[in-house]
Amino acid sequence: MSVLIPLLLSVLAVSLLSFVGVASLAFGRERIQSFLLLFVAFASGSLLAVAFLHMAPEVVEELGGRAFRIILGGILVFFIFEKFIHWHHCGKEECDVRPVGYLTLLSDGLHNFIDGVIISAAYLTGIEVGVITTLAIALHEIPQEFGDFSVLLHSGFTVRKALTYNFISASTAILGALVGYNFLGTVESRIPFVVAFAAGGFIYIATADLMPELHHEKKPLKLLQQVVALLAGVGLIYLALQFVPANHM
Question: What pTM was estimated for this model as a whole?
Fold first, then answer.
């Protein structure tokens, strides 16, 4: 039996997790706006946790010291890319959408592409391994996708555009699965480099774009709530990663 159909169904299911953010709309658009910085704090924590607790350890194991140079390169490239967006789309006028929204879509798209390749490799090993790997990836995708949706809203995207673009970014997992299924031997050696680059993007977004937004708040209670939200983002990713098989990259 070909594994292609269950493989595609699995990556489609993971891609559909990009709509998890719509659950937050149950609180109402205006209520979400009032709590949006808490969601941004949560996103900061989840992005940093994915980068430092999941992506970086695996690429360091694969690449050694080179991994840190690639992560640094990712941070620098994302800085340059953000400057380009400011220059090209904003000019002297205020942007309708902040560049961090596009950066989030780019870095998450790379990450989801790699997830697709990983799921493909798992299914080529065995259907049981593929299912377990899909579930493991889904566990840490849920809090991250919720954070991504919050960042897109904070960046100025409408709800419809945030959901649409986030799904398009998540759908790169399908492309990754197809590439992995057909060309795994060719792309497998390149995966750690892409993961390291994406990790640099996550670190840049969290520290250069999201965390500075949190410093605008001066009220002690709000500050405490933001710290708790940030730690919650780290904690949920940490807990989810406990179910991810070691060296699944």
Answer: 0.77
